[in-house]
Amino acid sequence: MRARSIMVLGTSSHVGKSLMTAALCRIFAQQGYRVAPFKSQNMSLNSAATIEGLEIGRAQALQAEAAGIAPSVHMNPILLKPAGNMTSQVVVRGRIWGKLSASDYHRRRVEELMPIVCESYETLAEQCEVIVLEGAGSPAEINLKQHDIVNMRMAELADASCLLVGDIDRGGVFASLLGTVELLDPDEQTRIRGFLINKFRGDLPLLEPGVRMMEDRLKKPCVGVVPYIDQLALEEEDSLGLPSIDADDSLRWPSSNLADRPLRIAVIALPSFSNFTDFDSLRAEPFVSLGFCRSATHLRQADVVIIPGSKQTVDDLLWMRMEGLDQVLLDYARSGLVVGICGGMQMLGEQILDPHGMETSGSIAGLGLLPIQTTMQSNKITEISTGQLVTPSLFGQAIPGNHVSGYEIHIGETLYLKEPRPFAQLARRSNCKQLHLDGCITPDSRIFGTYLHGIFDEDGFRHTFIAAARDFYHLAPAAVMNQWKKKREDSLNRLAVAVGQSLDIPRIFDWVGLAYQPQSLMENGERSH
Q1: What pLDDT does 522 receive?
Q2: Which of 128, 222, 342, 440 is catalytic?
Q3: C-beta neighbour count of 237 within 10 angstroms
Q4: Which residues are CB-neighbours of 148 under 8 A, at least 6 positions away?
Q5: Which DSSP state fits 106?
Q6: What DSSP string runs through 240-289?
Q7: Cβ distance 218 to 177 under 8 Å?
Q8: Which residues of the chain are modeled with pLDDT < 70?
Q9: How far apart are CA 268 and CA 435, in angstroms?
Q10: Number of helical (H) and strand (E) elements in the chain, helices listed first
Q11: How far apart are the C-alpha atoms of 205 and 73, rounded to whole Å?
């Protein structure tokens, strides 16, 4: 039987659609239903690799995790990765399809891709009982509506009941809810069954008169008010979720000689910063203070400087030079600890070549801190990888554990220019029997690079990384460290509980024609369809 469907729409970007979709996926799964997320088109520099070695938006990978299933490329058939100058790399079913301007994509290519979107949706719908669709931005973007494939058009194709999310934390929630609905066509308005108010911090009785007036104006029910949920260990979808970037942050890390102070980690906030979720697990550690920065002062104060992944590696390296951060980093690297992740590792090398014009043309000198050279290729590597560290020490400290894991998403092929000092030896999920060398580390082990995104999500490596860095600076061992995977699972459950307690879940289940069992009955193993 083809799956039932419900769609989460928002009054704008960053109102909480992605996490609301994840919460509903977890709630449907807890009720025993086979559920999957779906977002036909996503625009984000945060992506993930599937077990087939394909690329999707990271939000859909999180939603699949909430549903208790492996992420699939059919959950996000089109991924747009902004590449500057109003262009984006278009990833279709996990592979690079082209690089297009915004105008060309929306006016000409969207209709070409719509059959692929429909096919992916039907593939999921045949495998599941429920599909939770996520919209993008607002469904009331009237300038783009003619070629919309992600909001109301997708809702019609899936015959989905729609839930509209408004974010009160940003202000203007009533106006945004009313304006969104009134800009829709009558048949689209009918498809929206109700609305919710998200990220509420205030006194609920003071809000209720406005909610009642909104129900009268919209002729639709409010299914609930969801509180602001603090300290969720769950990634944001795009850069709107990125913490503030400090331009001049000399007061953030005051001088301190205390041995138990937090480890200071500065992540350079590149203009084309990709996969900033790589650092969520580090940010959550109680004895780590991590900041995203573009300040020379901030870099000089750091214990560890990380160059993260980049969608436009050469352009971001040129930006660092224009800002003078390259020389600051080179000075810092004489005695400090430096890490490069993916594009950041490529920048740390001797040279970057781009013969196919994937990002730019010609070649550019790197920072020269690692003896490697990278050539951009037309094919992208997208793999889930696991392996072992090759190096016996990190930051000059002997390390007890050597397991690493993460995912690779890169178009560069990196070669060693001297006797190789690889960072790790990895096996990719697509071919576990074939091992390959990853990354590079200096002889004194103070500077290293790796292609592994998500490397810090592995508890063992993250704990080793923090301990080695603290030892290097003669800081006291961290009194406590997180178990990140458990923290994520706890966060998904906490999100589902908060949403389940705040919303009229039986009504939402009724919209999709499925039975909802109270928890007491579920614990006794009862379920009806």
Answers
A1: 52
A2: 342
A3: 25
A4: 139, 141, 154
A5: I
A6: GGSPPPBSS-TTTS-----TTSPEEEEEE--TTEE-GGGGHHHHT-TTEE
A7: yes
A8: 1, 236-252, 361, 520-529
A9: 31
A10: 17, 28
A11: 44
Residue 82's pLDDT is what? Answer: 87
pLDDT at 529: 41
Span 173-190, pLDDT tens digits = 999 999 999 999 999 999
Place of tokens 């979808």: 237
Separation of alpha carbons 223 and 229, rounded Å:
18
Which residue type is seen at 123? T
**Closest residue by Cα to residue 527 from 15, 33, 11:** 33
For residue 482, which of 204, 283, 193 has the smallest C-alpha distance?
283
The length of the chain in residues reads 529
**Active site includes 342?**
yes
pLDDT for the residue 249: 46
Say how many C-beta atoms besides its own lie within 10 A of residue 413's C-beta: 13
Instruction: Provide the token pair at 369.
Output: 């801190």
The one catalytic residue in 14, 74, 298, 453 is: 453
User: How many CB atoms are closer than 10 A to CB 247?
Assistant: 11
CA distance 384 to 61: 13
Residue 293 appears among annotated catalytic residues? no
Which tokens hold the place of 154?
A: 């997708």
Instruction: Give phi and psi for 368, each to the nearest 5.
Output: 75, 20
Contact by Cβ (8 Å): 336, 304: yes
Tell me what pLDDT residue 172 has: 94
What count of other Cβ atoms lies within 10 Å of the Cβ of residue 202? Answer: 12
Tokens found for residue 97: 């399809």
> What does the longest C-alpha to C-alpha distance in the chain come to?
73
The C-alpha atoms of residue 152 and residue 80 are separated, in whole angstroms, by 19
Task: Provide CB contacts within 8 A for 179, sequence distance 6+.
Answer: 11, 140
pTM of the model: 0.89
Q: Measured in whole angstroms, how far is the alpha carbon of residue 311 from the centre of its chain?
A: 14
Q: Which of 314, 313, 312, 279 has the alpha carbon at shortest distance from 293? A: 279
CA separation for the pair 194, 59 (Å, rounded): 24
**Residue 459: both structure tokens together:** 């508890």
